[in-house]
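Hi R.,

Here's the chain you asked about this morning:
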Amino acid sequence: MPAIAHPEQPVTGLILSGGGARAAYQVGVLAAIADLLPDDSDNPFPVIVGTSAGAVNAVGLACGALHFREAVRRLTVVWQGFHTHMVYRSDWSGVLRQASRFIGHSLLGLRRETPVALLDSAPLRDLLTRELDFSGIAAAVRQRQLRAVAVTAFGYDSGQAVTFYQGRGSIDPWFRHRRVGIPTRLQLEHLLASTAIPLIFPPVRLSREYFGDGAVRQAAPISPALHLGASRVLVIGVSDNPNAKAGQQLPSPRPASTRPPSLAQIGGHLLNSTFIDNLEADIELLERLNYLSTLVPDGQRPRVAGLNPVDVLVIAPSQPLDRIAMRHQQELPRALRMFLRGPGATHSGGASVISYLLFERGYCSELIELGYQDAMARKADLYTFLGLNGAPQQG
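And the predicted structure, written out as tokens:
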């Protein structure tokens, strides 16, 4: 964690993690925050950082930072109206064509100069082109409604997690081990690169390198917000295990399995390790550093790099998203269900894969409602964290 010189007024950062369709949950939390804010409130998050699908939500907020409530409303409308074909080709011809290209490219070595993956994400490019006005970012920065917005992508050649950020000119770039921050004018290609889940969506070329999903090897997901000047952070997670705490009693052992793990079950664990584990580990590290800072005398704290306390509030799903996804799996287009059935994604053991790919109205709407209710259950914490007057008593 970098050492941050705290201003008198705290700078609030928003961390939106990746997670494919799970990111609909973030929109519900943001909708609750919009309802809690006074009518005349400005954008409550001067620093906004997103990765993968969280990067889409982050840039959507930043583009509309001059009108925070309207930006949240637009995000809600898009997510509530989602269909899978708006994100990737899910029709029979599209799925079969992409599968044959993937086999030819990966197994037979055909057309290696063309990046390919299991799914064709061309519809996502069209959607983002229609919905996002990137000029709103510069306008919000000029009017002091936004300090910086950042998205992270992973460079396949360099092996670095690169955070591309747009904000005030006083923010310096940073260079850490496999983590760098580069000032730029954010464009559509940065978003497409950040959302390119390895093997599932094709990588995107930026300058001299191909990039993929920013959650890959992102060892410190909270760090970019601190580099951009945040002194407190709200993290909206998409973890399936939100109530796990260090030192909590271990669950009872499960019955011995009689079958080897399916391909979808293995893939689900790989996706969880990419999108969830690093964020949870970084939150735990930050909490330990905050505790350590309390042991350092106030007069010596500025001399100890990285020990400035950072207030952190985490809001995460109160229900397992895998189970919600299983209830809605029939919403997937038939071609995609057939494509995923063989690897075992339509069975409970492989439900994690479905929870990331199920860009359908019923599933996304339920996640939005869950996010809204979870945030409202933390109303008192949010009032205190955001420094709002009239904080209710939590009962």
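The longest strand covers residues 148-155.

Let me know if you need anything else.
M.
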